[in-house]
């Protein structure tokens, strides 16, 4: 008490402890987190105990044989990610204050809205001397551009094995997608209307092959070169489309195949292609931020 007033003790969360906390959540196991971070399981347990003491509330609860987050834990996780992102951005800005050069990035429309503002904003604030060029295009175009060295990095969909200059980031579910307020149902004798990107399109081929294999008649109701146009057409009720959950507008929803009489769709691979085997530091840094953001987006989808 000071001058008759109660002084609240300020808590300074340990960023190292917060990193352990978020790593365990991301990996689904604190034993895996201990291995990833090069610590013993007892050291990780001590860190988590310290975190609960600092939080002043339980952050874990029993869930079967494992642990789940309490409401306080969920709140703490969100803030922990933000604190760590700011810490890492600060460290990058300080260390890379003289980082210069050019980075040419290729993305598909799915990731444009989800990643451009966040990833490029953070990168350009930290490295103002680096010139960034972005190309938003289809997978075939991006693969050709990165192979020819016209762009340095490209994030794209593919169904086969990645090339030597690429790494598989993850496999994501392909979904039937339709209007948020409509109930899709295959009707006997009525061709299913589809809203698809112009050919050539890998997802277009996957959808048509799945329907043909299930003996379901279909027709082109709408085609376009623009993903935004597909979203709008499907939301208007012109037909179903096929995409991953990434970037899905609120006006659309994922349709359960079995309930709608539709065939299940295979997952699709997401790969990161590089033009050079030994890229410069600016390219390496943007790649690091890009992969972090993609993995975070995938985690949010899996948790939804």
Automatic annotation (TrEMBL):
PROSITE patterns in UniProt: HTH_LYSR
UniProt-recorded Gene Ontology molecular function terms: DNA binding; DNA-binding transcription factor activity
Domain of life: Bacteria
Keywords from the UniProt entry: DNA-binding, Transcription, Transcription regulation
Domain HTH lysR-type span(s) in chain numbering: 13-70
Family from the record: Belongs to the LysR transcriptional regulatory family.
This protein's name: Putative LysR family transcriptional regulator
Organism: Collimonas fungivorans (strain Ter331)
Higher taxonomy: Bacteria, Pseudomonadati, Pseudomonadota, Betaproteobacteria, Burkholderiales
């Amino acid at each position: 008490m000071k001058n008759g007033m109660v002084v609240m003790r300020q808590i300074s969360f340990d960023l190292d402890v917060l990193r352990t906390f978020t790593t365990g959540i991301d990996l689904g196991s604190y034993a895996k987190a201990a291995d990833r971070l090069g610590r013993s399981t007892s050291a990780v347990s001590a860190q988590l105990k310290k975190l609960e003491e600092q939080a002043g509330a339980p952050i874990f609860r029993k869930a079967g044989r494992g642990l789940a987050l309490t409401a306080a834990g969920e709140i703490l996780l969100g803030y922990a990610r933000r604190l760590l992102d700011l810490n890492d951005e600060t460290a990058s800005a300080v260390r890379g204050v003289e980082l210069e050069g050019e980075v040419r990035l290729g993305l598909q429309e799915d990731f444009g809205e989800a990643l451009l503002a966040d990833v490029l904003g953070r990168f350009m604030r930290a490295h103002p001397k680096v010139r960034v060029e972005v190309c938003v295009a289809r997978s075939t175009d991006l693969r050709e551009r990165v192979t020819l060295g016209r762009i340095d990095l490209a994030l794209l969909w593919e169904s086969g094995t990645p090339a030597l200059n690429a790494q598989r980031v993850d496999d994501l579910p392909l979904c039937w997608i339709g209007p948020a307020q409509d109930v899709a149902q295959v009707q006997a004798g009525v061709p299913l209307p589809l809203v698809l990107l112009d050919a050539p399109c890998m997802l277009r081929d996957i959808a048509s092959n799945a329907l043909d294999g299930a003996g379901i008649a279909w027709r082109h109701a709408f085609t376009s070169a623009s993903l935004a146009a597909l979203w709008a057409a499907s939301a208007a009720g012109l037909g179903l489309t096929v995409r991953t959950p990434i970037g899905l507008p609120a006006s659309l929803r994922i349709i359960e195949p079995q309930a709608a009489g539709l065939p299940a769709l295979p997952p699709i691979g997401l790969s990161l292609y590089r033009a050079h085997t030994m890229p410069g530091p600016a390219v390496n840094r943007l790649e690091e931020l890009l992969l972090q953001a993609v993995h975070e987006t995938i985690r949010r989808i899996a948790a939804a």
